[in-house]
Design goal:
- The chain is an alpha/beta fold.
- It has a single domain (about 55-180, about 210-294), classed as 3-Layer(aba) Sandwich (Rossmann fold), CATH 3.40.50.1820.
- Helices cover about 45% and strands about 15% of the residues.
- It has ten helices and eight strands.
- Strands 1-2-4-3-5-6-7-8 form an eight-stranded mixed β-sheet, with helices on both faces.
- Strand 3, helix 3 (about 100-105) and strand 4 (about 110-115) form a beta-alpha-beta unit.
- Helix 2 packs across helix 7, helix 3 (about 100-105) packs across helix 10 and helix 6 (about 180-190) packs across helix 7.
Length: about 290
């Protein structure tokens, strides 16, 4: 998992060094307090700059607010047609998805983008995948009925959880989806310089806030899902290993896996051929609906 510019964890080189050395000392002196601090830090996204609304060339967005359990979620609607919700990942915001939004609107869809809790213009300073899943559910309920949801990284994980928890999402596209919270929690702890013992302690502290992480294991939840799913994942993704997307697609009945190359974790969000593949997959759902009506 890359340290710089990661959508999972982002530190400056100097800041990461100070934090690493400081936490190593703290872990020796006050292990439980250090575990609690690291768990809190794991739930704290880092904004890369002043938050702003997504600006999509040629398409004006209408801003609105969605009430979610975590607080107010800021959302934007673009275009007309069957509704597609797009969900960004950790440390991101809806501005990352402007090319995807533009292509979907051009393809005949209404697109609803939103900033996850504690991200972008939405409320909060801390969040987690459970709150992100609740945000997806809240947005989907507000703009129902939806045709599909397209989620990137932890936004895809949150979408899968929302589906498992009953959100009416008939079709989905997951781009580089993480499938297990503990994997990332342990990787995060390692980046902080914590020992395996302190990493497990951090995970236990995290579970006191978000609940048992096994409840968020997509490989356990996937076999019960029936919605058509397209999984897009770069084989050399350094932030979310390809094996995550590959095993999820294998566990999800009827899912389609499209391996990608030389696009990393985020470049696929603006790669024309990837955007075309997403639009084609979503149009399949439109054709299937028309066939049922006929």
């Amino acid at each position: 998992m890359a340290v710089e510019n990661s959508t999972i964890v982002r530190f400056s080189r100097a800041g990461a060094l100070v934090e690493r050395v400081g936490l190593k000392i703290a872990a020796a002196l006050a292990p439980e307090g250090t575990e609690r601090y690291a768990a809190d830090l794991f739930r704290t996204p880092r904004r890369s700059g002043p938050p702003r609304a997504p600006s999509v060339p040629l398409y004006a967005g209408k801003q609105f607010t969605v009430d979610a359990p975590s607080g107010a979620i800021q959302a934007w609607q673009f275009g007309e047609g069957p509704t597609v919700v797009v969900a960004h990942g950790w440390n991101g915001d809806s501005t990352q998805l402007v090319r995807l939004i533009a292509r979907l609107v051009k393809g005949g869809f209404e697109v609803v983008a939103f900033d996850q809790p504690a991200h972008g213009l939405s409320a909060g300073t801390r969040t987690d995948v459970a709150e992100m899943a609740d945000a997806v559910r809240s947005v989907v309920f507000r703009v129902r009925p939806v045709h599909a949801v397209v989620g990137h990284s932890l936004g895809a994980t949150a979408t899968a959880l929302a589906m498992a928890w009953g959100a009416a999402i008939p079709r989905a596209v997951f781009i580089a989806p993480p499938v297990q919270v503990p994997w990332f929690a342990r990787a995060f702890a390692a980046r902080l310089g914590l020992s395996p013992e302190r990493a497990e302690g951090m995970l236990r502290k995290l579970e006191t806030t978000i609940g048992e992480t096994r409840a968020f294991d997509l490989l356990r939840l996937a076999p019960q899902q029936r919605a058509p799913l397209l999984v897009l994942h770069d084989r050399a993704d350094r932030e979310v290993p390809f094996a995550h997307g590959e095993t999820l697609a294998a566990a999800w009945p009827g899912a389609r896996l499209q391996p990608l190359a030389n696009l990393g974790h985020r470049r696929m969000l603006r790669e024309p051929r990837v955007l075309e593949e997403i639009v084609d997959f979503l149009r399949e759902g439109m054709r299937e609906g028309l066939q049922r009506i006929a």
